[in-house]
Amino acid sequence: MLNNKKRILINKFSITSCFKQSTSYIIIISFILLFTSCVVSAQWYDPEKVDHNANTIYSLALNKAQNDDYPTAIKMINEAIKIEPKFVDAYLSLAGINANMKNYTESVNQFEKAFSLDSVYTYNYLLPYSISLAGTGRFNDALNAVNKFLLDTTINDRSRKAGEFRKGTYQFAIDYANTHPGKNYVFNPKNLGDSINTTNLEYFPSLTIDGKKLIFTERINGNEDFYESDLNDKGVWGKAYPLPGNINSTTFNEGAQNISQDGKWLIFTGCNFPEGLGSCDLYISYLTKTGWSEPQNLGPNVNSEFWESTPSLSPDKRDLYFSSNVPGGFGGKDIWVCHRDENGKWGEPLNLGPDINTAGDESTPFIHADNQTLYFNSNGHECYSEKPDIFVTRKLPNGKWSKPENLGYPVNTIDDEGSLVVASDGKTAYYSSDRSDTKGGLDIYTFQLRQDIRPLKTLWVKGQVYDKKTKQGLPSSVELTDINTRQLISKLQTDEDGNYLVTLPVGKDYAFNVQRKGYLFYSENYNISSTAPDSTFLADIPLQPIEANASIILKNVFFDTKRTELKPESITELDNVVRLMNENPKIKIVISGYTDNVGKPSDNLSLSKGRAVAVVNYLLGKGVNSARLSFRGLGETNPVADNKTEEGRALNRRTELSIVSVE
């Protein structure tokens, strides 16, 4: 017999834990008190008639379970069952303990043993049974079970609300499976092993662009620090070690972090730092020759008196995504973004808007190497439970984000899904989880993403910006634009030697634009839409010093065939010329128009002159002094390619800018 003390102890695990977030949905025997009034006379099982010795062992086992000693509790309950083979409450408690351990298959087995013994006494346990069924991915069976549970007209309002909520999540799971591909998809997360995972907690994985450095957070005795593991030539992760330098030197917690794709910046969450503006702020550390620098607070444009955390830096280091509960959003925690200007300063946060953020919580954003695909977690969109799921959204040509899409089961489950990062290959994902094969608590795992929820495939683009005359590398800003949509895909800063490395979505052609004071701007179109994913495209960029006789071809000035009117897509290029003239008020230029050799030479001469005039008129309209401008039409003369091919003729149809003088 259960004494009153034990009844009180068990009763705190109420059915509300099936609806609210709780880590204590465990001891399912707790429902005995809640549903005592519902048990009808047709049941045969009577808890008061359980063998005394079995009941004593069972009561002691519950104490063990209350103290999270689940293995001992399970062992003792099985001893009680040996004495009392039809101990229904014992089977129900085994089901609850296994559910809390996420051993959902075993939980279902134990529920069904209890149901087979007395279907009347156990009727009201159909709700937690349905949750365990959902934990195994059996959503149709879970829906049937909760529907049966809801047929009981005697359950209280709170229990009915919990049942209706679960019914909605199961139906969502069924509908999702029916509308998304994935019959051949195998979800098989691999624990990254002893080199990375320990009996401590490991979480928040972050990768460099080449996938060879893994940075993560480890909690040891309550203190959070950053560790690194390096991938060797055989594809094996090396033994993790604390990040060198000053980044781990504080006595405070360094939490959620994100390493820049070039491996040179680390932005992370620091909580309760003396100089902090709020409870948790975002900090940055730089990789130096002696390790990571002392962290710097990102300042009041990024941080507030509230909570900022879970940062994600775009591949070009221009956009910083993070989660914050600062007022002015749509719910508890929202995802925000700050943009970095030309001077390296972060602008004020911008909310990603109601398509992304909800009345619930959104957190752990991750922007992929394609700079177009954003993953995040949320409990405000349709989920598999009341806990956060992981979603994906994609940047549209107009700069807005697509409707978030749930990643679906089995990536998302009835349990809490935290952060997800995806390697530059677009298919290899990393996340932290406390799965059954964990080394201890949260471990880091890797798995392959389902095809339809992957980001865009990318290719690597690398090169150097350098002085065309001296060959010396030049630190510069490089803009990469989708030629077809004119959407800015990436805007990156080279290192001090002018070197850059970036990933770009495949299947597109790009315009490269570089501006640097004292040099003519660079503008080039690269037809790389057929370049294979994961390959490397080399694009070195020579800049010409501003001096007499220096010239460039205006690659992005466009006209219709046999027309002299500028096409709208020419404006960006011509505005670069305006900027050049404004920054160098003493230079004088000449605009030269050329054609191919198709048609009469006289017509081509007239056409080329008209096009040159159109460019000059645009510059005049922008305020450039006419004394600094001249033009000429040169027709089909001075070809730069063979006019016998269409490719060659296209190159010969061009507009050139040449510097006449710099004084």
TrEMBL record:
Q: Which UniProt keywords apply?
A: Cell outer membrane, Membrane, TPR repeat, Transmembrane, Transmembrane helix
**InterPro entries linked to this entry:** 6-blade_b-propeller_TolB-like, Bact_OuterMem_StrucFunc, CarboxyPept-like_regulatory, OMP_bac, OmpA-like, OmpA-like_sf, TPR-like_helical_dom_sf, TPR_rpt
Where do the coiled-coil regions begin and end? none
**Signal peptide (from-to):** none
Where is the major localization of this protein?
Answer: membrane
List the protein's name: OmpA family protein
Extract the Gene3D superfamilies matched here.
Carboxypeptidase-like, regulatory domain, OmpA-like domain, Tetratricopeptide repeat domain, TolB, C-terminal domain
The reply to whether Repeat figures as a keyword in the UniProt entry is: no
Q: Which domain of life is it from?
A: Bacteria
Q: What SMART domains does this protein's entry cite?
A: TPR (SM00028)
- TPR repeat segments run 54-87
Stretches assigned to the OmpA-like domain? 546-663
Q: Which residues cross the membrane?
A: 25-45
Where in or outside the cell it occurs: the entry states: Cell outer membrane
GO CC terms in record: cell outer membrane
